[in-house]
Amino acid sequence: MFSTPNSLQRRTGRFGVGRSEHLKQLLNEYENQLTNSECKLQLLANLANFSYDPINYDYLRELNIIDLFLDCLKMHTDDDYVHYALAGLCNMSADKINCKLIIEKNPTILICLVKCFFSTRLDIVLNSMVTLMFLCNHNEQEKNELIKRNEIRECLEKYSQSKDIRLSNMAKLFLQDYFR
User: pTM of the predicted model, to two decimals?
Assistant: First the structure.
């Protein structure tokens, strides 16, 4: 369920920590967590969860959370980090401003997302597909680059035959919207 400023205020109360401050605390804790990988992963998951609600987009942009997600996607080989970073990017890429920032901050995002297409984890594959679709919807250059890549088409054609209905349907939709 999406939030409104009034509902956030009601839940926070007069003396509670506001959304912006809470997100800042999560980010600071993530950045200062040097030894406990499990704790750091949980903080990343929390930040990704906040990215689903458009009311948080301004706060997340102010804190450069897109950069954090992009860095995790590029630097980590651990599937859990990739999953949460990609989930956060996927959630935020529903917004045109965020898509522009994602592409500006990482012009090679297409390469990162294509790499995720070939993951063994279904959640990573699906999130990479949706993120790529959102980015292409808001950027003609990304779309043109995408449809030039035969390995993507071949992968999507294979996925369209999958027994997993989510993967099959997403691949068919992707092919229909971008490759026909």
Answer: 0.85
